[in-house]
Design a protein that fits this description.
five-stranded mixed β-sheet, disordered C terminus, 6 helices
Length: about 190
């Protein structure tokens, strides 16, 4: 059996792993790095349950050889964080886009890519973009609604941040710190 050494960053942490040359990224992540949020369904790249991001792009981990990810940045559902991930989780919960949860990690990673793109999408465009992720429980109306809500929320948050003028709060902070220090010294 031919072994290789693969160096990659997974969920922000560097890893060097020795594995068989034929090992898939899914098997490396699950079996060697114990990242079991990634699920294996069809193992043929059809169901999307194994979706992770590799260098920012949604990727089927069951079809990707681990060796091809040398030097790559990989994110699994365990490493999905930040405001956009929070928007997605909240929207999935509010819109009934969760049932058994088997497809959810892959759905979240595919949807996260859409939210981060900050492009308005129609329901049809979301449906096409999410068509590589199969779910037997939810229907898809909840998933499409949740992704649309998270995309709109991300765009609105970015627009609000751009519209807010930058303030220099240094003087105000210094004044508050001075007042607090003054109160402290006079209360003794």
């Amino acid at each position: 059996m031919h072994e290789i050494t693969v160096q990659m960053t997974v969920n922000g942490r560097p890893h060097t792993v020795r594995t068989a040359g034929r090992t898939t990224l899914a098997d490396l992540l699950r079996d060697q790095l114990d990242l079991t949020g990634l699920h294996l369904g069809c193992e043929q790249g059809v169901c999307g349950a194994c979706t992770v991001t590799v260098d920012g792009l949604p990727t089927r981990a069951c079809l990707t050889l681990a060796g091809s990810c040398e030097g790559s940045e990989v994110v699994t559902v365990e490493g999905l964080g930040g405001p956009d991930a929070d928007r997605l989780r909240d929207a999935f919960s509010r819109n009934g886009a969760l049932q058994c949860g088997f497809c959810t990690p892959g759905m979240l990673l595919s949807a996260h890519h859409l939210v981060c793109a900050r492009q308005p999408l129609t329901r049809e465009e979301i449906g096409v973009a999410m068509s590589g992720n199969l779910c037997r429980c939810t229907g898809y109306n909840g998933v499409v609604s949740a992704v649309g809500e998270a995309v709109e929320s991300g765009i609105a948050a970015e627009d609000a941040a751009a519209a807010t003028p930058h303030r220099d709060d240094t003087a105000a902070t210094r004044g508050a710190d001075t007042a607090a220090a003054h109160r402290y010294t006079h209360e003794e």
